[in-house]
Design goal:
63% of the residues lie in helices and 6% in strands. By secondary structure, the chain is mainly alpha-helical.
């Protein structure tokens, strides 16, 4: 059974059973990339390994979100920021100030400019290329995208990629890092909504930068 892509949708063109080859390939690449990225201390491997595979196999880059065609308009991004970032800042402030009793003084982390570059290119773009661009797409090739949520066509690949994203974070920080499953769902929705990894990469970086500001401001 083979799978073809048309306009961001994946269609099986042969009957008779599901082809798990795309999922197996993705899990094998994950099993190679994770230990190499840790051993070499080179997080950009999350970007390089899927890009090399896509180029070597001659696949469409647009199918893996390497495009900027549906980046969303101003109202879309204002709505997203208002829905996610505003409650996060208010909730984080209320928890730190009134629950922990910590004083709040707005300040930026040290080397903030270099931190912006690091979060955008090394963290955000690299991780989103692998988990939402490559892995989520490979899962969609197996199960399709039969459901819709707030303008995004999605399938079981979205939560699967978020689960694996969270499990990989256990290596640094232990089980508490499983909480990144929830932003992983959000990044997956952004990838499905825009058919691009650029948008979730930017939001991924902004989320981390905003968290750094809040933690530094509370000195936690």
């Amino acid at each position: 059974m083979s799978v073809a892509s048309t306009g961001g949708e994946f269609h099986c063109d042969e009957p008779g059973g599901r082809n798990y080859a795309p999922l197996i390939e993705a899990l094998l690449l994950l099993a190679v990339t994770l230990p190499l990225a840790l051993w070499l201390q080179l997080p950009t491997l999350w970007l390089l390994t899927p890009l090399l595979l896509i180029a070597f196999t001659g696949r469409s880059q647009a199918d893996y979100g390497l495009s900027w065609e549906k980046h969303g308009g101003l109202r879309f991004h204002l709505a997203v920021c208002g829905t996610i970032f505003v409650p996060y800042v208010i909730g984080h402030y209320a928890f730190g100030r009134y629950w922990l009793g910590a004083p709040f003084q707005l300040r930026l982390p040290q080397n903030y400019l270099s931190l912006i570059v690091d979060q955008l290119l090394i963290v955000g773009l690299s991780e989103e290329t692998f988990f939402r661009g490559y892995l989520q797409t490979q899962c969609d090739r197996v199960w399709g995208r039969p459901w819709q949520f707030v303008g995004a066509q999605w399938g079981i690949g979205l939560p699967i990629s978020a689960i694996l994203f969270a499990l990989c974070h256990i290596v640094h920080g232990g089980p508490a890092r499983l909480v990144v499953f929830f932003p992983g769902l959000w990044y997956g929705w952004l990838r499905a909504r825009t058919d691009s990894i650029v948008v979730p990469s930017i939001y991924h970086a902004v989320s981390n930068l905003l968290m750094s500001i809040m933690l530094t401001s509370f000195a936690l």
